[in-house]
Amino acid sequence: MNKLKPILIILCLLVIKNSIIAQDVQFSQLFADRLYLNPAYAGADYCPRVSLSYRNQWPGVQFPYQTYSVSYDQYSEVLHGGWGIRMMKDDQGGIFNQFSADFIYAHHVKFKTNSSISFAFQASVYQRSVNTSELVFADMIDSRYGIIYSNTENINIQPLLTPDFSAAIFYKYKFYFAGVNVSHIPQNIVPDHNIYLPMKMTIHAGAAIPFFKSDPKNPVYVLEPNILYVRQQSLNMLYYGMYFDVSKIALGAFFRQDLKMHFDAVILSFHMDVKQMKIGYSYDVTLSRFFKHSWGTHELSLVYLFNCRKKIKDYGTISCPDF
After folding, report:
1. What domains can you pick out in the chain, each with its CATH number?
2. Cα–Cα distance measured from residue 213 to residue 251, given in angstroms and rounded to the nearest whole number
């Protein structure tokens, strides 16, 4: 508990000041929860798709960060595009809790040059709350016996509920693709709480390149290089690496760093197809002395692709890694 006192004191100061600046969650498995990466992926597989993700960050500390998300999307011929819904709950050390529900529409346009482009708009409801019962103040600590006194501070932080908006674009040409997602536009400010969600820009690009196939009975080997850049307020994160697919199994290795060449983590991932289901696991190896306290980060994902009626003739699925 002693190791957590500095963290709790900082959180106390944030609450007392009543000024909270929030940064978004970043998943390690980029394409498992791909609507979070880029809403323009809605309807990319034509058939209905359900995705579940769970992230346990720093399980070695007493109060880890845990994130849960679920999403559903499919293509609609009536809407001439894809639509999706997504919900996420983020528990930050038992102190800050946030919940979001996203409603997405993506318009897909296919060209004759083996390319396509998608435009997406996302409307969200965002809720954030603070659990002050877990905070530790100086008058609660005894010099000999530790934390033995009750909290006498009078803190009343009301949960906030606010709308939120995002826009995205995605372009695909043969095996190559790139996209941009801008979240919290305009920068979302809640005056009554003096809280704001800084605008976030996500730029990503990659490819899914088959490089060996002897005959239909043998597996296809696919290289999937990807790079991602995220900017939000003072955060500048670069995430890059590669998946290697062999038949129904995929292995991945990625690096995460800032623009000053400070490496944050190495992410190792394993994905497997079981009929219509994709199961994924990744582990973030923290590249600092904090690793012995945090024990890294675990992430689990599950994706199920439903069967549906025959696709329309002019529809082409969007290339991306099988997460």
Report:
1. 2-305 (2.40.160.40)
2. 19
Q: Looking at the DSSP assignment, which residues form a beta bridge with residue 247?
A: none
Q: Exposed, middle or buried: residue 121 (CB in 10 Å: 0-12, 13-18, 19+)?
A: middle
Q: How confident is the model at residue 92, as a pLDDT?
A: 81
Which secondary structure element, helix H or strand E, spans residue 198, and what is its range? none
Rounded CA-CA distance 125/113 in Å is 38
Q: What is the distance of C-alpha 54 from the center of its chain?
A: 10
Q: What is the mean pLDDT of the chain?
A: 83
Q: Which of 123-132, 175-184, 271-280 has the lowest mean pLDDT?
A: 123-132
Residue 73 near residue 41 (C-beta atoms within 8 A): yes
Residue 303 Cα to chain centre, angstroms: 15
Contact criterion met (CB below 8 Å) for 91 and 67: yes
CA-CA distance, 96 to 301, in Å (whole number)?
A: 23
CB 198 within 8 A of CB 215: no
* C-alpha to C-alpha distance for 197 and 107, rounded to whole angstroms: 27
Instruction: Give the mean pLDDT of 188-195.
Output: 60
How much is the average pLDDT of 150-174?
80
pTM score of the predicted model = 0.82
User: What pLDDT was estimated at residue 314?
Assistant: 55
Q: Which residue has the tokens 């696991």?
A: 281
Helices (H), 237-322: 291-294
Q: Which residues contact 175 (CB under 8 A, 6 or more apart)?
A: 207, 208, 209, 210, 319
User: Which residues have C-beta within 8 Å of that of residue 134, sequence separation ≥ 6?
Assistant: 8, 63, 93, 94, 95
